[in-house]
Design brief:
Blueprint lengths: L1 E2 L14 E4 L2 E4 L2 H4 L4 H17 L27 H6 L6 H6 L2 H11 L11 H6 L11 E6 L8 H8 L1 H15 L3 E6 L4 H16 L15 E6 L9 H8 L23 E5 H13 L1 H5 L2 E2 L2 E2 L1 E8 L5 E6 L4 H8 L9 E2 L1 H13 L1 H5 L2 E2 L2 E2 L1 E6 L7 E6 L4 H8 L11 H4 L9 E2 L11 E5 L8 E2 H4 L6 H6 L8 E6 L4 H15 L5 H19 L5 H13 L7 H34 L1
Parallel strand pairs: 4-5, 4-7, 5-6, 10-20
Antiparallel strand pairs: 1-2, 2-3, 8-9, 10-11, 12-17, 13-14, 15-16, 18-19, 18-20
Length: about 600
């Protein structure tokens, strides 16, 4: 059956459609299929036939141990320059990796089970092997997609900002695997600090002889260049990116021909994601089987996840593939990435006294559900601005009149006589990752803004990997989780995303240019409720007319958020329409 493996957010490394057979990937494009070497086919067959036998049936995934993390400077706590990178193991035995040759590198990548980390999920080893056909005299190029324009996604910029040498070394190893002589890193124009750090790392690598002529002393020549874009979301699509590098307007090309045949400057090209390229050297050093030991079959390895939205600690974290979504959020999106309770200073301070004197003593003050004592601040137009401890439920007038008068020392009854020293009832909030606790969760967009959202009950046990999220009628995409709690107007949230896609459409394809514009207009009417219930089915059909009918995946990425909204939150849309109609009738 035909499976959609294209990245929902233009994936930035979108490969051709793929025939998806159990445990097997076969290109549907004859010219590319024919280009796979016999050795690559044998390696792939060996991987497919032994995957189930070699992998133990794991039932628990994550947390990832520190020694298994590939990106060890993700938060910029250490030196990101060459000296620091060398101390963390980068560029270690790179010469030996290069000297082992093309077939060995590609085989290790295939054994690892690495799939494109930009969202497409295409098997990386197979994709790289497409370049290893007999040379026709044209040079080959590696293009690294560092545009990262998907809303909610910020993993690649962390690599370029804090671990740039991982990317530079990855370019060298990946380039060697496909016989390329140069890499172009296409970086988003707004990423000024990231591009600056990356250029410094490239200059350091040139100065140390790690790239350039006779890279790492291997006899292999390889150059790395940084190309800056101008912030167009469409340039995240691989052929639009190639057009931009060539100095043209960034608009997707028709396929075929595919970039592996006719890419940048008309030469064979592979476009790969930053994370995909960056992990290659570590896989080659530690072995493909080591990488494949994480995650589950066909979803192996480690992965960078972004967690943003209504969480206590928005973060980028490296975790094992297939970790349950709930565990990922609760473990890493709390304060310091740990399960967390946020409590007030006064709340914490009273706990020992309550334990010493007893909870019933504390509960004897105030009234039911408002028990204990409390610190009150009184300021403004009073004679004696003060902070005073009083019994809960004291009348406001008495509180002000008793304590905010100018102290004369003649009071017959002091505040202390009115209030035994105690404290406030214990109130906590924001336990775990989701703001207000897991029960306050409404929904999650799991893979960047272009993947369909899923509601709380689906998030409970869904694994964060390609296959698990496809079964949940969404996708891993860029693995950028956008968390929404119950305070969210989910209709408005999706409308805002559609407005973004309308703005970023290049206008080349009629279904996208016209369809997304109409979806945008309809969604903002749904926000107000100024629509008919039948229009929900209408916008669903409109999204289906856009999906799969455009040159690139931007059309799909615009359609899927609307489909996810209707699939899971149709009652809210109908309720909004009903409320608007009732309000209009009442005003008539």
């Amino acid at each position: 059956m035909l499976a959609c493996l294209g990245c929902p957010g233009l994936s930035r490394t979108l490969s051709s459609g793929v025939l998806h057979l159990p445990n097997t990937f076969v290109s549907r494009t004859p010219s590319i299929s024919a280009s796979i070497s016999r050795g690559s086919q044998v390696a792939l067959a060996r991987y497919n036939s032994t995957a189930q036998q070699e992998k133990v049936k794991k039932t628990k995934f994550g947390p990832l141990a520190d020694q298994d993390r590939i990106f060890t400077n993700l938060y910029g706590r250490h030196d990101w320059r060459l000296k620091g990178a060398l101390s963390r193991g980068d560029w270690y035995k790179t010469k030996e990796i290069l000297e082992k040759g093309v077939d060995w590198i590609i085989n290790e990548i295939k054994v690892s089970g690495l799939r494109g980390r930009g969202g497409a999920g295409f098997p990386t080893g197979m994709k790289w092997s497409f370049m290893n056909k007999p040379s026709d005299g044209r040079p080959k190029y590696l293009v690294v997609n560092a545009d990262e324009g998907e809303p909610g996604t910020c993993k690649d910029r962390e690599i370029m900002r804090h671990d740039p040498h991982k990317l530079v070394e990855g370019c060298l190893v990946a380039g060697r695997a496909m016989g390329a002589r140069a890499a172009y890193i296409y970086i988003r124009g707004e990423f000024y600090n990231e591009s600056s750090n990356l250029q410094v790392a490239i200059n350091e690598a040139y100065g140390a002889g790690l790239i350039g002529k006779n890279a790492c002393g291997s006899g292999y020549d390889f150059d790395v260049y940084v190309m800056r874009g101008a912030g167009a979301y469409i340039c995240g699509e691989e052929t639009a990116l190639i057009e931009s590098i060539e100095g043209k307007q960034g608009k997707p090309r028709l396929k075929p021909p595919f970039p592996a045949d006719v890419g940048v400057f008309g030469c064979p090209t592979t476009v790969a994601n930053v994370e995909t390229v960056s992990v290659a050297p570590t896989i080659c050093r530690r072995g493909g089987s080591w990488f494949a030991s994480f995650g589950r079959e066909r979803n192996s390895g480690t992965k960078l996840f972004n967690i943003s939205g209504h969480v206590n600690n928005p973060c980028t974290v490296e975790e094992e593939m297939s970790i349950p979504m709930k565990e990922l959020i609760e473990r890493h999106a709390g304060v310091f990435g740990c399960p967390t309770t946020v409590a007030n200073v006064e709340t914490v301070s009273v706990a020992p006294t309550i334990c010493r004197r007893g909870g019933s003593w504390f509960a004897s003050f105030g009234r039911e559900r408002n028990s204990g004592t409390k610190l009150f601040n009184i300021s403004g137009h009073v004679n004696n601005p003060c902070t005073v401890e009083e019994e809960m439920s004291i009348p406001m007038k008495e509180l002000i009149e008793r304590h905010a008068v100018k102290f004369s020392g003649t009071s017959s009854k002091t505040a202390a006589e009115h209030c035994n020293v105690g404290s406030v009832r214990f109130v906590t909030s924001a336990a775990g990752g989701v703001r207000g606790g897991w029960d306050n969760l409404l929904c999650v967009i799991p893979g960047g803004s272009s993947t369909p959202l899923i509601p709380k009950h689906v998030c409970e046990d869904v694994p964060m990997d390609f296959d698990g999220l496809i079964q949940a009628q969404t996708g891993l995409g860029t693995a950028a989780l956008i968390v929404m709690d119950k305070s969210t107007d989910v209709i408005r949230a999706i409308a805002r995303l559609i407005e973004f896609y309308k703005h970023e459409s290049c206008g080349q394809c009629t279904p996208c240019r016209e369809g997304v514009d109409w979806m945008n207009k309809m969604m903002w009417r749904f926000v107000k409720g100024d629509a008919r219930a039948a229009e929900i089915d209408m916008i669903w059909e409109l999204s289906k007319q856009i999906e799969g009918h455009t040159i690139c995946a931007l059309g799909d990425g615009a359609a899927w958020p609307v489909q996810g909204l209707i699939r899971h939150f149709r009652p809210i849309m109908e309720s909004r329409i009903s409320e608007f109609q009732q309000k209009q009738q009442a005003q008539a």
